[in-house]
Amino acid sequence: MISGFLESWPLFQWTYLAALALAVALSTLGVVVVTRGQVFIAAAISQASLLGIAVNLWLGWGVPAVAATAFSGAAALATARRRNHRAGVSADEATGWLFLACGSLAILVLAKQPVGLKEVQAMMASSVLGSSAGDAGMFGLLALGAVGLVLGARQRLVLLITDATMAAAVGMRVGLWVMGLALTLGLVTGLAVRATGLLFAFGCLVLPPLIAKNLCRDVAPMFWVAPLVAVVSVLTGFVLAHHFDFPPGQVVVAGLAAALLAAWGWREGREWIWG
Amino acid sequence: MNLSSSIRLPLGGGVAEVGSAARASEQRPSGPAAPVVAVEQVTLGYGRRVVLRDVSLEIRQGEFWCLLGANGEGKTTLIKALLGAVRPIRGRIALRGDFQNRRRLGFVPQETEVNPSAPVTVFAFVSGGLVGLGVDRATAERRIRTVLDLMGITALRDRSLWALSGGQRQRALVARALVRDPLLLIVDEPTAGLDMAASSGLLEIITGLSRDKGITVVFVTHDLSIAAKRASHVGLFKGGRLVAGSLESTFTAENLQRTYGVTVELGRDEHGLMTVHAAVGTGRREESK
Question: Where in the sequence is the domain holding A89, given as residue range(s)?
Fold first, then answer.
């Protein structure tokens, strides 16, 4: 099984490398999303990037990556500072609106167009095949940036995402950090959705951190466990997909979903046995 | 307040520095010490909703301030502004120079803001208080051990924060603030929801820090007896306004009635400490907790 996968390496090497680099970048940023309890926001941002791609096709701009990141960046910024106030539009309401509006508009703007609709529908289903050397290089840089951020500012990052008021109290510029993280999330998600589709991008963004959350006793080690889980899952998924001739993106996400079930079981069992 | 000649003024509302004012006052042989915190004509709110209007306050080294008022009157908003988490709409909050980078400022919130589904051990939670101090691993370990000992939660250091009782979690919150070795400790209703023993233990620790180490304390509470017995100064919040001053001049029956809308009787116990009795609605007299 593994030798068959290795034989396919020369043909799909850039796809494999791009997917691995994206898995590292997305799962590292996903720790921020999951720890702050913003899984739904991540879904809305992913949908926004899909709308960006649809609008790009509709208007014939010819810059899908720019459109995807612009829309996801705007969605990330729109949801970044919104809190659940006692009155007015809550964060959940705004996120829900964004998710549904972007999801429906992405289809509607192309419904009467001769081209594009199938492309958007394929992106919703996800396909990781077809990445170029340029994609792999760009996603490699994003992965290095994400890992560099964690290496350089892990303690600050952990405090910010677990307790923003305390972070402000110790002198961190919380507003700038939150905006910076939102823009980074929008950028990476937008590029990931453009390259691999909604399912793979969203799956790698939230599932590895959710698995890590159930395996770790603190937030800090989640920043290492989540990318590790993502890399192992992507490699395993690709080997299985190649062997059984299944679409690789779906196999990776299904594997991660199964691993999350196992992690929930592990956590429940651990609490039941040790309290 | 005569700080205007030495304060570094920001453009618009914000936090300024009174470091030069503090140094200047240290050279003066007499007169009141420079404030650690000076709040000047500050208006605070969220969006278009104004919570506090034209509030002024001066807090000096070693003072124990209690901020009192009904729910929603702006106590927590003011301390969030002191912490830099809420920016003034108008006016200025000036921190003494040595607090500008907030290295010696500790904050104890009413409850932790940590997402309850996030995994956090007590040790990791307390170590969050060291962010920005640049201490090495050995110093960090020593400081954490010291504050866990002080708060009596050393045995819980590897436990999940969510497995602790309310009182133990409050102690972890205080430990996280104390690990910064603060000169100014801002405390937001730490005894809310605690039983009498846990509440009393926590209050003793905080009062002891103020008394023995000269730490300046800003303490938000609903409990008038805490103010009566432990505060040197009080701030009373009502209708977006603040009445602030020493305990003797400000903690009066008239001011308390204006703040809470009920008749309050003040007295003295056998040790000379102030006692509080609130006559609630029907005229029944109740001693405050």
Answer: 2-267
